[in-house]
UniProtKB/TrEMBL annotation:
Residues 431-450, 571-580 have a biased composition (Basic and acidic residues). Residues 611-631 have a biased composition (Pro residues). This is DUF222 domain-containing protein. It comes from Actinomycetospora rhizophila. Residues 270-302, 431-454, 559-644 are annotated as: Disordered.
Length: 644
């Protein structure tokens, strides 16, 4: 080990509050002369100080926008239409950019907890913007509840996860508004084509109905994967683009999927970008589709996955559902999607009162009005969709099959399966306790016996209380089966299902990749004699799975709790995530939230030569004069999102 002459970083760096004192300390530290361990500490402190300075900057911008020499004290108490014009000169910024700055400053003043967390450096400008823009359409009371409920943890969430949480809370508070918002935007579905500065074309299909958009995307993904497996080189995104062109090209009208694949293969260009690495078939789990003859195994496809409460499908409540990779959807849309995916694999996550998983069930029953026959031709090579229902033990125990026409068989099946899980848990617990008692009594006899020959052997069966011999045999059979599974290379389907439902996503702390899209990773590798058991498994996406080969160390102190240690020596915990988030109960606001679309369909031409066409927003009827309500301006010039 070589000795390095590193500069010392104060031990109390993490305790210094953001502000002048921390700024002085940070200014004296040269980042190039500290140890690898301290560079991470320094980065975290700089982030807190930067967030603090961002808050100060926005406060100064707001005060400059209110500066008025003609008013008492030189400050206007209300905004005026010309507010911010001087800021445009000072910052060399557009009205839209200045408006965004002032919107965040005003929000920090209105929401005191948000402003305090920002000034303390606990939340940065990006996350403040997500909270403010994500609640801009909500009533004041709902916006305050969403922001106050998330401000404490917002700094620890990735932007995408924070957006998801904002949407989930907003739609849980006002399910009727969420459904109205979806319906009104769906009415504005449209297609726009724009020529870029380079001469290429961007085509956007916007505000499509979710079920149709999901089906379209799944088919494009499946065709692209087939083309890739057939030997089409290049990035999967490039192949998807060629699939879309081939499907809609007039020359391919009425073409079969095989003919579409041929057209995609023929569309390859010599200078198409190539992937950085080729998927390794040796690392594929046994249920992955093999590569077709003459081609390589395709890139793992996105899998349709709907997570919705059983009570929501039974119309007992209107809690929002989740479509991983897409976002939070209202209850009505979730019911529509579930009904159209009767052919999917229906899983059921039974939770305790804290939202933790206690049973991972699977059912072949469907509601009477739901057909298991696909409503559209099956997509070849596409992974089977998954519909995951979640329900608490208390709710499932309280359901009576006869009270829900059409759901009788499904509810009865779930209640029966849960009873079997409970029986198995009771028998396994009794078996463990019996073994412990037998071990303790055997040890006591060995200590008290005068001669070794006087010992009397004890068996766990003699101490197996609370059930009969058949229960002991069932527990022993389960133990033998688990012992065989523990030595296998890949987990069984049941164990894989338990792990994906327990952990929800990739277990690297900031990653949000769905567990269904991830690889089931051994925390202690098989090469190091790690067992294939729940306490040694967790989902990890392809990128994060490779981190263990790049100096990161992973441990699982208890099932579902993952601790990562970086090459610099810092540890990061990823605690268990509840299957069901703790969302607020519905409460209609006194003042309705806005649900009007920001853009409107019209009969104008689809083609637009300007790559950044101007958008004009119609103010709400009750909007005050002057600047639009906070958060509205920032939506005017957002670029059209890509379709994938």
């Amino acid at each position: 080990m070589f000795d390095h002459d590193y500069d010392e970083v104060p031990a109390e760096l993490e305790e210094l509050p953001a502000g002048a004192a921390l700024a002085v300390v940070l200014e004296r530290i040269d980042p190039t002369r500290v140890s690898p361990y301290d560079t991470v500490r320094l980065l975290a402190a700089q982030r807190r100080q930067l967030a603090h300075q961002q808050a100060r900057f926005h406060l100064a911008a707001r005060e400059a926008s209110l500066a008025d020499p003609d008013e008492p004290g030189g400050r206007a108490e209300v905004d005026v239409p010309a507010a911010g014009d001087e800021l445009r000169v000072v910052l060399a910024a557009s009205r839209t950019a200045v408006g965004r700055i002032l919107d965040l400053a005003e929000a920090a003043e209105r929401h005191t907890r948000l402003g305090a967390a920002w000034r303390a450096g606990l939340i940065d400008e990006q996350r403040v913007g997500i909270l403010v823009r994500g609640t801009a359409a909500l009533s004041e009371e709902h916006a305050r509840e969403v922001i106050d409920g998330l401000v404490d943890e917002a700094g620890t969430l990735t932007p995408s996860r924070l957006i998801d949480q904002v949407q989930a809370r907003a739609k849980a508070l006002d399910p009727e508004w969420a459904q109205t918002l979806y319906r009104k935007h769906r009415r504005q579905r449209r297609v726009r084509a724009r020529c870029t500065e380079a001469g290429t074309v961007n085509i956007s299909a916007m505000d499509l109905p979710l079920p149709g958009g999901v089906s379209f995307t799944r088919r494009v993904n499946a065709l692209a994967a087939r083309a890739q497996a057939a030997g089409r080189a290049g990035l999967i995104e490039t192949i998807r683009a060629d699939v879309v062109l081939a499907v809609f090209h007039p020359a391919n009208a009425g073409a079969t999927d095989d003919q579409i694949i041929d057209a995609v293969l023929a569309a390859a260009l010599p200078d198409d970008p190539q992937p950085r690495r080729t998927p390794d078939p040796a690392g594929a789990p046994p249920d992955d589709p093999p590569a077709s003859a003459g081609g390589r195994r395709p890139t793992r496809q996105s899998r349709f996955e709907l997570r919705v409460g059983l009570a929501t499908l039974l119309q007992i409540d209107d809690r929002p559902a989740r479509l991983p990779g897409w976002g939070v959807i209202p209850a009505g849309t979730a019911r529509e999607l579930a009904a159209s995916h009767g052919d999917a694999e229906w899983r059921v996550a039974v939770t305790d009162r804290t939202g933790a998983l206690v049973a991972a069930l699977i059912t072949r029953h469907r509601p009477d009005q739901t057909s298991t026959t696909p409503q559209e031709p099956p997509i070849e090579s596409a992974p089977r969709p998954v519909v995951e229902l979640h329900v608490s033990e208390a709710v499932l125990d309280g359901l009576h099959p006869g009270d829900h026409p059409g759901w009788t068989r499904l509810i009865a099946d779930l209640r029966h399966q849960l009873a079997c899980w409970r029986t198995a848990r009771t028998e396994d617990r009794a078996a463990r306790e019996a073994e412990e008692r037998a071990t303790h009594e055997q040890a006591a006899q060995e200590r008290s016996a005068e001669e070794p020959g006087a010992l009397v052997g004890l068996t766990p069966f003699g101490h197996f209380r609370g059930t009969d011999a058949a229960g002991w045999e069932r527990a022993a059979a389960r133990r033998r089966r688990r012992a065989r599974e523990a030595l296998a290379r890949f987990p069984s389907a049941a164990l894989r299902r338990w792990i994906t439902m327990r952990d929800r996503s990739c277990v690297f702390p900031p990653c949000g990749a769905s567990a269904l899209e991830s690889e089931i990773d051994h925390t202690l590798s098989v090469l190091e004699h790690g067992l294939t058991v729940g306490a040694n498994l967790g989902p990890a996406c392809g990128h994060d799975h490779d981190l263990k080969d790049q100096g990161w160390r992973l441990e699982q102190p208890r099932p579902g709790w993952f601790t990562w240690t970086s090459p610099t020596g810092h540890t990061y915990d990823r605690p268990p995530r509840p299957v069901v988030d703790d969302l607020p109960a519905p409460r209609p606001p006194a003042t309705p939230s806005r649900a009007e679309p920001h853009q409107y369909a019209d009969d104008g031409p689809m083609w637009e030569n300007d790559p950044s066409p101007p958008h004009v927003e119609t103010p709400a009827p009750d909007a005050p004069p002057g600047r639009p309500p906070p958060g509205r301006r920032s939506l005017l010039d957002d670029p059209d999102p890509p379709p994938f």
